Amino acid sequence: MLDEWSSNILQHDPMRLYRAKRDLEHRTVISKYNILGFISSGTYGRVYKAQSLDDEHGTLHAIKKFKPDKEGDVVTYTGISQSAIREIALNRELSHDNVVALKEVILEDKSIYMVFDYAEHDFLQVIHHHSQTLRSPISTAVLKSLIYQLINGLIYLHSCHVLHRDLKPANILITGNGVVKIGDLGLARLIYEPLQPLFAGDKVVVTIWYRAPELLLGAKHYTKAIDCWAVGCVMAELASLRPIFKGEEAKLDSKKNVPFQRDQLLKIFEVLGTPDEKEWPSLVDMPEYHSMKRLDYFTNRLSDWCQSRLRSPQGYDLLRRLFIYDPERRLNAKDALQHKWFHEDPKPTWNAFASVSTHQIPPHRRISQDEAPSMVPIPQHASLQGAHGHMGIPFGQQSKPGSSTSLSGGGHYVQSSGTRKKARLQ
Amino acid sequence: MATDFWASSHYKRWIVDRATLHQARLADLQYVDNPEQLDFLSIYFANLITKLGRKLQFRQRVIATATVFFRRFYLKNSYSETDPFIVIAACCYVAAKAEESPIHIKSIVQESRTVFNQEELNGRPWTTDNQKIAEMEFYLVDDLECDLIIFHPYRTLLALCKRENTPLSTSEEGEDLGIGLDTDDGPRYWGTGEGQLELPTGALQVAWSIINDTYKSQLCLLHPPHLIAIAAIYLSFIIHPPVRPDPSTIIEHESATTTPESHRQPRRSTRQANSHSSSKKFQSHNQQDPIAFLADMNMSLPLLASVSQEIISLYALWDQYKEDMAPDAARLARELSGTSPVASGSISPAKRSMSRADSLTQSYGSQYFGSLTASAGATPVTDTNETLDTASSVQEGVPGVHYVTPAFLSLLVQRMREAKLSDVTPSAQGSSSGSGSINVISGRKMAVNKRLERMQAAG
């Protein structure tokens, strides 16, 4: 017979040898990266700024640490969330200039660390910089370059059959060299030959202000067109420095039924007019069609809206096409990139800030030092702060959609945490 | 990425050569009597994954993904140093998420307990809990290097071929296609589907099942999925000869009266295909000449032949593998008893494994496989029989033919792990007492331990 030690291992902890071997080979996050500071937090966890210790240039990175699950104070293994699996799996495959690059994933001590290339700015920060500091609109050259690169990245994602499903200013990053990087694929998913219908996994997708009308009307089936709608919202927000459709989100009820998003639809109708069945034939099939019919009637005044904000008939035309109600007729990413607006002066540039004088470039991302040492382990209050966090919509199955306020959080900005909403109200 | 295999992690990091495969099994090789036992383990584990996957109501693609995860994991690890059962459970758990059809961890815990405790475990119950599975998942994802998107031959098959007289994108096994795709997605591989080869339903099913079967081997690590798919199509042509109708085939159709009701349909459509081609409509119609179709693939024929050969030798090996309570056992034994020893070595493998394979119940194709096997001389069955441990394998009513059973393999895994443990046991006493039990299955094990002891004694 085997001795007690051996049979004990076989019986109670058969993977002990394996783990011992693996743990021995493991290189810790701390041994590879110098953590410089804390960037932001969300429902998913926290993001830190870090410097590589391995390369001599000390390349900068953003390390996203997924919030570990806890039972009381004890961190336990409870299974990797669907959102983390998606973000990891997709990022491992994707490679494009306008999509944020994943350098590596470190699984350590029950936590997942995703190491990304560092991006100095994001769209939300640029908006904030212009509305708060410069108090002037974003120049057409910058606006056009940002949108051009955003669409370029989106074409890549769509050509890979990936829906982003959470495009918004906070999730679109910009490097110090003015290159746009689409980030946060935590809600993204492959739509190539799915085994499950899209709505089965996630009841709610896209932050409310950027959510396409077909989603607001309860469509179970949706397409890449939802990302294109969000691009339109982002473009309008860059042009006006405030969200174009800033509705209040109706919360999920206790049974987690998705409610009718009355206010958000009204905000859209006020600008684009009430959709009619002629321009959007499948409108009548939408689950919320009858609720929608009870709303006040509006006419389209997007042209007026654009007059003072985009100052270009072509710019208006692009926006108009991105905001076509019928998802089947809405401009797709490929056609959007070919739009005439990008061919007229000023032309888009690969450094989006090429035309901007040095002192007008948005400042470097601020990091907070006092929280820096806390990457391991994560402090208690993190989850509370995350409630108004910038990226995450929680996932239907892994977390609790109803419990989070982040569904309505269009964006969150660490430097001024909390001031964004106030700023918008001025 | 979803469409571009050449840019995928699958292609860039996870297609390996035979030398790498061999290297990965070196540690395990010292604990088995015969290297072929490791190939049987390959079948055994794949079957367990399928069993667990079925319990969890997984789609075929999820099972396939779980199997690929399992194979990749054991490129870096050895059976003897791990608990393959918990690895299987974790692979299924991650595969469900990777394929966007997640299940609760409790289901995995519960169903894996049920499935694995049906295995021969030497009296020890197999236990697990949420914590253990989740912990294993963590290590597994790390060992998989976070590459979780897998390409499968099914996609190529359905892109290249369609069922006879059906519109585009009808899929096998009810796999939903097209959900979430909009019109601009249009071309998959062949655009409008114009270039698709129409296959009789039976042939498509055979090809699909052959692909299922390839997961029992290491093929998914050796070859890109489209190659496996084309080999499967090629092999399905052999069973469903589409161009040159062989009178003997038709006769066999007529005589195959024992075919179950559910398989009448494919059989009938095969006959239709045959009459179709014999009336020369087949070739004129949309240039649907399968030979030309394959030739148009413009792929290396030697490569295709070698992949096909590997599939055939899998069947030859599989022929010696036997689920304990296989319902067709008696019939198979009867079939076998009528044949000469040489014939049973060359013909029966494909035949019997085909009939065992999920929906491959038509046995009339066996003669084609048989001839292929014979011409290739792959895995001579008689050689391997002699080396199998007669005490552990089940002897059927046929003289000279031994089967490897799951019970035997389950014990083998246990012994391997015990042997490995005693090799690393800190106390010398543990080492020697351990080797006593190992001796039962592996006489050679003793020698290894002695060498080890000598080495320890030397310093």
From TrEMBL, chain A:
Source organism superkingdom: Eukaryota
GO cellular component, one term: mediator complex
Assigned protein family: Belongs to the protein kinase superfamily. CMGC Ser/Thr protein kinase family. CDC2/CDKX subfamily.
Disordered as annotated region, ranges: 384-426
Stored SMART domains: S_TKc (SM00220)
EC numbers, comma separated: 2.7.11.22, 2.7.11.23
GO terms assigned for molecular function: ATP binding; cyclin-dependent protein serine/threonine kinase activity; metal ion binding; RNA polymerase II CTD heptapeptide repeat kinase activity
UniProt keyword annotations, A-Z: Activator, ATP-binding, Kinase, Magnesium, Metal-binding, Nucleotide-binding, Nucleus, Repressor, Serine/threonine-protein kinase, Transcription, Transcription regulation, Transferase
Domain Protein kinase: 33-342
Claim: Hydrolase is one of the keywords in the record: no
Name of the protein described by the UniProt record: Cyclin-dependent kinase 8
Localization terms from the record: Nucleus
Reactions the enzyme catalyzes: L-seryl-[protein] + ATP = O-phospho-L-seryl-[protein] + ADP + H(+); [DNA-directed RNA polymerase] + ATP = phospho-[DNA-directed RNA polymerase] + ADP + H(+); L-threonyl-[protein] + ATP = O-phospho-L-threonyl-[protein] + ADP + H(+)
Main location: nucleus
Pfam families associated with the record: Pkinase
InterPro entries from the UniProt entry: CDK, Kinase-like_dom_sf, Prot_kinase_dom, Ser/Thr_kinase_AS
EC top class named in words: transferase
From TrEMBL, chain B:
Cellular localisation: Nucleus
Family matches, as Pfam families: Cyclin_N
Cellular component per GO, a single term: nucleus
An example Gene Ontology molecular-function term: cyclin-dependent protein serine/threonine kinase regulator activity
Keyword set includes Transcription: yes
Superkingdom field: Eukaryota
Keywords: Activator, Cyclin, Nucleus, Repressor, Transcription, Transcription regulation
CDD domains: CYCLIN_CCNC_rpt1
Domain Cyclin-like: 47-142
Entry similarity comment: Belongs to the cyclin family. Cyclin C subfamily.
Protein name per Swiss-Prot or TrEMBL: Cyclin-like protein
Species whose genome carries this gene: Crepidotus variabilis
Lineage: Eukaryota, Fungi, Dikarya, Basidiomycota, Agaricomycotina
